[in-house]
Amino acid sequence: MEQLLNLKFKGGDVTELVDLVKTLGKLFYLGYEPILRFDEEKQETTDEVVGYEMIVVSEITKKPYKIKFDQLDMDFSMLSARDEVQLINPVVRFYQDSGALTQGSTISISAEKVRKVDKKQINSVPKSETVKQKA
Amino acid sequence: MQNEISAVYLKKEYLGNIYATGEASTRSIYLNGTRRQVRAYPVTSDKVSSFLVLAPVAKSEAHVELFQELSLKNERLMAISNSIGQGQNRNTYYEYVIFVDELNAKGEK
Q1: Scanning every residue of chain B, which has its alpha carbon at the shortest distance from the alpha carbon of A68?
Q2: Over pLDDT 70: what percentage of chain B?
Q3: CB 3.0–4.6 Å: which of B2, B77, B81, B96 could bond A7 by disulfide?
Q4: Beta strands in A40-134 (DSSP E)
Q5: CA pair distance A81, A84, nearest whole angstrom
Q6: CA–CA min distance A46, chain B (Å)
Q7: Does the pTM of the predicted model rise above 0.90?
Q8: Are B10 and B77 in contact (CB under 8 A)?
Q9: What is the rounded CA–CA span in Å between residue B76 and residue B103?
């Protein structure tokens, strides 16, 4: 088949064309974890925090997703499990599959900040997908 | 940290109006673990030139006229792999395509 595609994205960045609302719908907070620096020489994880991963569940797919934050001044204390959250300046990257043709898609999502939308909570989040919230 | 997802939907305004630029051909792809026959349409648009749209055979037009405007339903981004060469010279490369649930010609053919 002829190759004539101009769909190319620098570094896989598809932020400007992805409809996140249609793809994931509302996002509900489950918890967060610090990202710790990995020492390449010692081949071990250090105690140094270099960012955070927030875990959310999608209203549409009902699956959990990890959102990366590079900022160290993140404050998740205002969030409770199942709060609806909004990502501020999200960046979405799309990755190519290693399957024979295609087995689905892989994305990574990062954001500058997160904002709590309101106190309304959902009941449709499967209990098995609830992540223990860190203090 | 990468997240698996079954569909990455696109904003309607990103592609603009879509026009066929050649005959559709048939491809066999794996979609979420299932092999499916799809039609592949070379297209262009107001905003992105020359890309490929894949649509289910049963939900797409077998023949479209050159530069005919097309109507798409549920556009989502997909990366598919292709191989060229044989043996040790075999190389795999990826291309981005748009997968849709339905593809129809707009207006009269």
Answers
A1: B1
A2: 92
A3: B96
A4: 44-58, 64-69, 83-88, 91-95, 105-110, 113-121
A5: 9
A6: 18
A7: no
A8: yes
A9: 13
- A59, amino acid identity: E
Q: By the CB < 8 Å criterion, does A119 face chain B?
A: no
Reading phi first (left if > 0) and then psi (alpha if -120 to 50, else beta), residue A20 is in: alpha
CB atoms within 10 A of CB B47: 12
Q: Which token pair is A97? A: 């599959």
Mutation target among A60, A96, A98 for the B interface, most CBs of B within 10 A: A96
The structure tokens listed for A60 are: 């549409």
Is there a contact between B50 and A68 (Cβ–Cβ < 8 Å)?
no
Q: Which helix (H) or strand (E) holds B37?
A: strand B34-45
Instruction: Evaluate whether ipTM surpasses 0.85.
Output: no
Q: Which two tokens stand for residue A128?
A: 């098995």
